[in-house]
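Figure S7 source data.
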Amino acid sequence: MALLEVKGITKTFTRRKKTPHIVLENMSFSVEQGQYVSLLGPSGCGKTTLLTVMGGFLTPDSGQIILAGNKVEKPGPDRGFVFQNYALFPWMTVKENILYSLQVKKLSQREQKERLHELLEISHLFGSENKYPVQLSGGMQQRVAVVRALASRPEILLLDEPLGAIDFQMRELLQEELAALVEGAKTTVVMVTHDVSESVYLSDRVIVMSANKGQIVKDVYINLDRPRDRQSPEFKGYVSEITELVRQAFSEKAVDIELPSGFAETNVNYNSQASFTDAFNRMSNRYSRVNHGRAAK
Ligand SMILES: Nc1ncnc2c1ncn2[C@@H]1O[C@H](COP(=O)(O)OP(=O)(O)OP(=O)(O)O)[C@@H](O)[C@H]1O
Ligand SMILES: [Mg+2]
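C-alpha cells for the predicted adenosine-5'-triphosphate complex:
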C-alpha cells in the first residue's frame, strides 16, 4: 500500500459576485514510502492548495488524503511542513524553534535533548543553536526549517518551494544539502518547486500539473543514480523534457486567465507567449507571497 494517497481531490474557491474558481478537480495520485516527489506547474495552478490540503490545513470539497492508512482531517505531527520563506518563529532561537515541534510528541527532557542533538548534527547547526533567525544566512534558516519539520519524525515532509527565496549562486549547494538531509532522515517528500533542474536533481518523480484545474499533465520518473550529475546528457534530457511539458502547461493558461488587479499596468504585449508568461509569473508571485503570509499565520 502506498504511504500517501491523494484520492479525487476537488477544491473550489468562491469569491463574492465571481464565478467559482475550480483550482483542483478530481486529482489523484499516490506516493510510495521513501519516494521524493516534486510538483511542478504554472503559477496559480494549485500546487500550494494541494500541499495545504495534504497538510490538513485546508479541507477539500470532495476527495480524501490518506496517509499511512488514515484519513487526513487536520494538521498532525505525522506531516512535517515547510512553508514558503521558511516561516521560522523570529522571537525564538534555533534551539527553541526546533524544540517547539517536539512539544507535540510529549517526549521527556532527556529524549528532547537527544533528538535536538541529533537534528543539530544532521543540519550542521551546532554552535548556532542559540542564535535568532535574523542572525542566520538564508541557507541556515532553510536548514532550521527543514529540521524543525523533521523533528517529530513525520511520515512525510511537505515542502512548499523550500529554496524559493534563495539566490541562484546558493541554490545548487542548498539542493545538495537538502538531498543529504532528507536522505539522512529517510523521509518521504512532496515538494513544490518552480525550478525544473531542482526537481530533476532531487526527485524520484516529477508530477507536472496543468494550469487548468490542476490536472496531471505527466508523471515523470527520474531514473538517474545519486548523487546526480547535472552536466550529464541524461540529466539534461530530463530537464528539456520537463521544461517542454511546463511550457505546454503555461500556454493553456492563456485561454481562460483571470488577470490579477494591476496586471494591465505592466504594459506587456499579450500576443507574445514569453512575455505573457513572464509577466504573469511576476504578478502571480507577488500575489502568492501575500497569500502565503496569510496562510502561515
Ligand atoms: N484562500 C484563497 N481564496 C481564494 N482563492 C485562493 C485562495 N488560495 C488560493 N487561491 C487561488 O487558487 C489558485 C491556486 O493557488 P495556489 O496558491 O495553490 O497556486 P500555486 O500553484 O501554488 O501558485 P504559485 O506557483 O504562484 O505559488 C490561485 O488562482 C489563487 O488565486
Ligand atoms: Mg504556491
